[in-house]
Amino acid sequence: MMVFVGTLPFAGKAAHRKAAAEQEQARREAERLERVSELERRLSELERDCDEAAEISLTGVRVTVEKYGEGVVIGQDGNRISVRFAEEEKSYILSSRFSARPRFEDDEYIVSVFTRYGTAQERMKYIRKELELLLA
After folding, report:
1. pTM
2. Which of 68, 98, 107, 117 is a plausible cystine mate for 85, CB 3.0–4.6 Å?
3. CA of 15: how far to CAs of 22, 51, 101, in Å?
């Protein structure tokens, strides 16, 4: 015959709850670490996607814009360019989303590379923000 003294039955339940809570915490931590690893892998892939655009210098390249005519690229920062036309300077983001952008000799290739670059940069920003929250 078992005789329980004091709060032993409750102590067993409390220990069980504590063990279950610890297991849940360990499971969540493993999921967090797995998510961090996945985000870091994805960030690395996106950085490699940006390499092609980083190798292309458009400075000095002649472009045509329907509204302003012919111009020359005078500055570049990633997928953003500055173009000098006869009477003014304008800035553009190179992306297939913008139809009023400058046209290049090898337009399809240039625009596709810089569209991918811009998309990758946006995704990287959100991944870095999520990583920051996960690692805080």
Report:
1. 0.74
2. 68
3. 10, 54, 66
| Distance between CA atoms of residues 36 and 32, nearest Å | 6
Assess contact for 61 and 104: CB atoms under 8 A: yes
* Tokens encoding 70: 């012919």
Neighbours of 63 (CB within 10 A): 22
Distance CA 133, CA 33 (A): 12
The dihedral over CA atoms of 93, 99, 105, 108, expressed in degrees to the nearest 10, equals 90
Query: Residue 8 CA to chain centroid, in angstroms?
Result: 54
* Cα–Cα distance, 46 to 69 (Å, whole number): 35
